């Protein structure tokens, strides 16, 4: 058996949401590592994050539109699908229902109907996180948390979609699915984590620390998440080739979910300080003010009420207090054993790339304003 | 007799004094050597063990009887080899053949060596080396083969370094060279000991299939020593910190010791500490493979001391002016905790990892790498002693449909409950009313019963019956007064 990680072509691969943050990195990864693959990107708007390679084609489309998707898939005839599309976290519950659940179910149906062999879904590591417990070296044995126990409706819909994807595995018998659960994605184009942290530095908030800073937290460079997705896709395609032989239960990838992280859980505030340092902060450790988690929680509560009256969002909220004082990290043993996954970019390099990207963008913007 | 300064120290650190007393009073060796059965020759060997090793002699002498003598001799043989290598007064052409041939010397009855300079502290061991050879002859052939194999490889490695002119003038160049040097002087010891443990049936043979782990055991100890001994080695004209590390911060090795380079020196030291720390999780993994308590203690105690020493050296500028040491109280505490089980040793590693973490400086070039390495130690400990188990599956709904079904079921269950309670209440109520009716028909006086109940209740709550009547009077007066007010 040739080493699948070095295959020149993965056949025809559709990347849903390929113009988004993660999706565009997956496209870049496939072009670089498997250059003879035909990549078709489907996204709501395909104007941004376009890859120049001639092996990549772009198609506008809405995954909630069943007829439109069927038409596109019939034309492209993909071997594999990587589905990364998701609406923004802060949008209304109906949209999450419609896109995450409805859209994903549409895609499964379309893929089954048009002879797709492998379907990889981007889930979220938070599907096992409830409103109170920490996650300490959590693995795939942890049950998913949805409904009333799940504090974020977005995550509930991600979990529903993941279940739907995994249940569709081997239906029909030559259709294979798996789910990737990344934790805290950072990198070039990240809109959630790094920009907020750089913003906190600009506002002079780096002299505070909430809690003891003994809580380990997983962050994952986007290129590693892309790597995990493609390894999942390759494994599913291999499983399909093996038919009618079935892999051992302990080696199966199809029908399975995998946590993908950098494998470098790090103390939460150390991560923040590394980001701030990369952005230019040189504050010595001795000037940092320590705020206990309880005090911060109380302040957060008061601020949230006060700002609610004013109709604004405060700088410190209880959710932020919780996230910055809790342990949240995972074991990636299953991905290592079954996917052959090993992070390809270190956390430090990931931070450097992500923050430098933000600084370059801000530089450009300020130059534009100056003109 | 303790010095006055240490007495003052312990007045202010009573916990450490307590640890010392506890160790001295309560520590029972797992095994004790039986001096009565020992030959004069063997006694002389143990005398040399005490003479040449301060830290290892104690743990070696508590080893399981099966391995006590082989390990003690292994130590003395390597110490002998080291004494030849270390002595700069022996010319190379004389030194090299001894180093390369040392494993054969072990078979030469009566061999000894008198060419060491007078200042070599372990000189006497080589002068009387024939006693070691005599005892070596008597141990099991399987142990002899292991010891000879390691001696041969270490001797050749040392000879290569002794021959390497560049190493002698400039010290160690790259990190790879540094690790190779540590391999020869310590990694090989890890291998030899592991093979002895497995041969003696006191460790899991799987350890032999994981050579990285035994290598790390030696590397960790050696790297910690090299990191800590920078000043002492400089004074002796030697340098073991690899150029690849210090040259990132200063141009000349000696610049590390200049006060104006304080920050640079600290940055270089944290990279040395980081390099050693990356071995820590392997060491814990290795300890998990040991089966016998005395072997566990023998391996665990030095490792715990090593991580505590690293913590003491971390961000400590004294490293460049004196010999940084953990206090005797801390050492006793570490020995108490390391001579029990793996979980306690893991606690030590976690405790010191967090102490290092607290001092980690965000402006250090290796800040994040150190943090990640400490996180890896903690994660490894969690993987063998998990503090969190997979939670109970509360059967969260897995789809929108299921969620709605569940909601509906919950609502139905709620109404079921309401119906059930109403039915029970209705039944009980009907029966009670019926009983009251029967009683009334039979002539019960509910008015008297009600009055008596009120009175008894009043007594219970502390008003006398007279109070009740008073209260009634007062109330009626108020009631009378009311119309007067309303007229206003």
Automatic annotation (TrEMBL), chain A:
It is a peripheral membrane protein. Transmembrane segments: none annotated. It comes from the Eukaryota. One of its GO terms (biological process) is ergosterol biosynthetic process. Residues 14-284 form the 3-beta hydroxysteroid dehydrogenase/isomerase domain. InterPro entries: 3Beta_OHSteriod_DH/Estase, Lipid_A_modif_metabolic_enz, NAD(P)-bd_dom_sf. Pfam families: 3Beta_HSD. Keywords: Endoplasmic reticulum, Lipid biosynthesis, Lipid metabolism, Membrane, NAD, Oxidoreductase, Steroid biosynthesis. GO terms for cellular component: endoplasmic reticulum membrane. It is found in: Endoplasmic reticulum membrane. One of its GO terms (molecular function) is 3-beta-hydroxysteroid dehydrogenase [NAD(P)+]/C4-decarboxylase activity. Heterotetramer of ERG25, ERG26, ERG27 and ERG28. ERG28 acts as a scaffold to tether ERG27 and other 4,4-demethylation-related enzymes, forming a demethylation enzyme complex, in the endoplasmic reticulum. PANTHER family: BIFUNCTIONAL POLYMYXIN RESISTANCE PROTEIN ARNA, SHORT CHAIN DEHYDROGENASE_REDUCTASE FAMILY 42E, MEMBER 2. Belongs to the 3-beta-HSD family. This is Sterol-4-alpha-carboxylate 3-dehydrogenase ERG26, decarboxylating. It comes from Ophiobolus disseminans.
TrEMBL record, chain B:
The chain crosses the membrane at residues 417-444. It is found in: Membrane. Its main location: membrane. Pathway: Terpene metabolism; lanosterol biosynthesis; lanosterol from farnesyl diphosphate: step 1/3. It comes from the Eukaryota. InterPro entries: Isoprenoid_synthase_dom_sf, Squ/phyt_synthse, Squal_synth-like, Squalene/phytoene_synthase_CS, Trans_IPPS_euk-type, Trans_IPPS_HH. It is a single-pass membrane protein. GO terms for cellular component: endoplasmic reticulum membrane. Its cofactor is Mg(2+). It catalyses: 2 (2E,6E)-farnesyl diphosphate + NADPH + H(+) = squalene + 2 diphosphate + NADP(+); 2 (2E,6E)-farnesyl diphosphate + NADH + H(+) = squalene + 2 diphosphate + NAD(+). The keyword Membrane applies. The keyword Nucleus does not apply. Its EC number is 2.5.1.21. Keywords: Lipid biosynthesis, Lipid metabolism, Membrane, Multifunctional enzyme, Steroid biosynthesis, Steroid metabolism, Sterol biosynthesis, Sterol metabolism, Transferase, Transmembrane, Transmembrane helix. GO terms for biological process: ergosterol biosynthetic process; farnesyl diphosphate metabolic process. Gene3D superfamilies: Farnesyl Diphosphate Synthase (1.10.600.10). GO terms for molecular function: D-glucose transmembrane transporter activity; squalene synthase [NAD(P)H] activity. NCBIfam families: squal_synth. Catalyzes the condensation of 2 farnesyl pyrophosphate (FPP) moieties to form squalene. Squalene synthase; part of the gene cluster that mediates the biosynthesis of squalestatin S1 (SQS1, also known as zaragozic acid A), a heavily oxidized fungal polyketide that offers potent cholesterol lowering activity by targeting squalene synthase (SS). Catalyzes the condensation of 2 two farnesyl pyrophosphate moieties to form squalene. The presence of a gene encoding a squalene synthase supports the identification of the cluster as being responsible for SQS1 production and suggests a likely mechanism for self-resistance. Belongs to the phytoene/squalene synthase family. This is Squalene synthase. It comes from Ophiobolus disseminans.
């Amino acid at each position: 058996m040739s080493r699948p990680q070095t295959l020149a072509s993965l056949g025809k691969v559709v990347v849903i949401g390929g113009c988004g943050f993660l999706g565009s990195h997956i496209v870049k990864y496939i072009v670089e590592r498997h250059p003879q693959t035909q990549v078709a990107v489907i996204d709501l708007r395909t104007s941004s994050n376009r890859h120049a390679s001639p092996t990549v084609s772009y198609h506008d489309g809405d995954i909630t539109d069943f007829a439109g998707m069927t038409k596109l898939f019939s034309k492209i005839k993909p071997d594999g699908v990587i589905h990364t599309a998701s609406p923004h976290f802060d949008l209304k519950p109906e949209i999450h229902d419609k896109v995450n659940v409805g859209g994903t179910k549409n895609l499964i149906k379309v893929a089954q109907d048009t002879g797709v062999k492998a379907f990889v879904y981007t889930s979220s590591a938070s599907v096992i996180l409830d409103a109170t417990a920490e996650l300490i070296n959590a693995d795939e044995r942890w049950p998913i948390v949805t409904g009333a126990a799940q504090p974020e409706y977005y995550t509930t819909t991600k979990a529903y979609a993941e279940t739907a994807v995994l249940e569709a595995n081997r239906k029909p018998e030559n259709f294979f699915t798996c789910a990737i659960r990344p934790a805290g994605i950072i990198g070039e184009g990240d809109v959630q984590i790094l920009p907020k942290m750089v913003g906190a530095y600009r506002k002079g908030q780096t002299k505070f620390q909430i809690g003891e800073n003994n809580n380990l937290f997983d962050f994952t460079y986007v290129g590693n998440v892309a790597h995990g997705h493609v390894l999942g896709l390759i494994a599913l395609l291999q499983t399909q080739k093996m038919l009618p032989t079935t892999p051992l239960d302990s080696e199966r990838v199809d029908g399975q979910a995998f946590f993908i992280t950098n494998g470098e859980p790090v103390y939460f505030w150390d991560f923040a300080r590394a980001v701030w340092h990369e952005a230019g902060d040189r504050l010595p450790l001795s000037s940092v003010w320590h705020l206990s988690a309880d005090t911060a929680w109380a302040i957060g509560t008061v601020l949230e009420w006060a700002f609610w009256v004013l109709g604004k969002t405060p700088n410190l909220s209880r959710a932020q207090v919780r996230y910055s004082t809790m342990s949240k990290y995972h074991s990636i043993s299953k991905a290592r054993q079954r996917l052959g996954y090993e992070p390809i970019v270190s956390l430090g390099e990931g931070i450097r790339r992500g923050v430098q990207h933000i600084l370059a963008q801000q530089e450009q913007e300020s130059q534009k304003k100056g003109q | 007799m303790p010095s006055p300064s240490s007495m003052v120290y312990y007045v202010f650190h009573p916990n450490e004094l307590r640890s010392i007393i506890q160790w001295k009073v309560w520590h029972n060796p797992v095994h004790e050597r039986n001096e009565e059965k020992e030959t004069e020759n063997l006694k002389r060997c143990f005398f040399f063990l005490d003479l040449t090793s301060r830290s290892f002699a104690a743990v070696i002498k508590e080893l399981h009887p099966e391995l006590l003598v082989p390990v003690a001799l292994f130590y003395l043989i390597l110490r002998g080899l080291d004494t030849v290598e270390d002595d700069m007064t022996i010319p190379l052409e004389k030194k090299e053949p001894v180093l390369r041939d040392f494993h054969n010397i072990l078979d030469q009855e009566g061999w000894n060596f008198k060419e060491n300079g007078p200042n070599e502290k372990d000189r006497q061991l080589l002068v009387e080396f024939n006693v070691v050879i005599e005892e070596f002859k008597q141990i099991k052939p399987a142990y002899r083969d292991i010891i000879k194999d390691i001696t041969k490889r270490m001797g050749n490695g040392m000879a290569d370094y002794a021959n390497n002119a560049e190493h002698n003038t400039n010290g160690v160049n790259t990190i790879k060279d540094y690790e190779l040097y540590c391999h020869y002087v310590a990694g090989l010891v890890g291998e030899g000991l592991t093979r002895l443990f497995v041969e003696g049936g006191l460790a899991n043979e799987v350890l032999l299939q994981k050579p990285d782990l035994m290598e790390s055991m030696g590397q960790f100890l050696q790297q910690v020593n090299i990191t800590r001994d920078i000043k002492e080695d400089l004074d002796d004209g030697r340098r073991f910190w690899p150029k690849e590390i210090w040259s990132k911060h200063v141009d000349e090795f000696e610049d590390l010791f200049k006060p104006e380079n304080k920050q640079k020196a600290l940055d270089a030291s944290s990279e040395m500490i980081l390099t050693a720390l990356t071995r820590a999780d392997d060491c814990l993994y290795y300890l998990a493979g040991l089966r016998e308590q005395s072997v566990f203690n023998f391996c665990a105690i030095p490792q715990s001391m090593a991580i505590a020493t690293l913590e003491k050296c971390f961000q400590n500028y004294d490293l460049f002016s004196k010999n940084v040491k953990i206090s005797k109280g801390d050492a006793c505490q570490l020995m108490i905790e390391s001579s029990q089980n793996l979980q306690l040793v893991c606690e030590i590693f976690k405790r010191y990892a967090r102490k290092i973490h607290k001092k980690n400086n965000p402006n250090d070039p290796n800040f994040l790498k150190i943090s990640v390495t400490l996180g890896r130690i903690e994660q490894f400990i969690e993987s063998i002693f998990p503090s969190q188990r997979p939670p109970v599956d509360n059967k969260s709904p897995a789809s929108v449909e299921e969620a709605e079904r569940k909601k509906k079921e919950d609502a139905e269950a709620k109404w079921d409950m309401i119906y059930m309670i109403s039915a029970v209440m209705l039944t009980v109520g009907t029966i009670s009313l019926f009983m009251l009716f029967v009683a009334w028909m039979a002539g019960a006086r509910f008015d008297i019963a009600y009055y008596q109940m009120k009175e008894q209740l009043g007594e219970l709550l502390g008003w006398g019956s007279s109070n009740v009547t008073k209260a009634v009077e007062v109330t009626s007066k108020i009631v009378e007064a009311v119309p007067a007010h309303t007229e206003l």
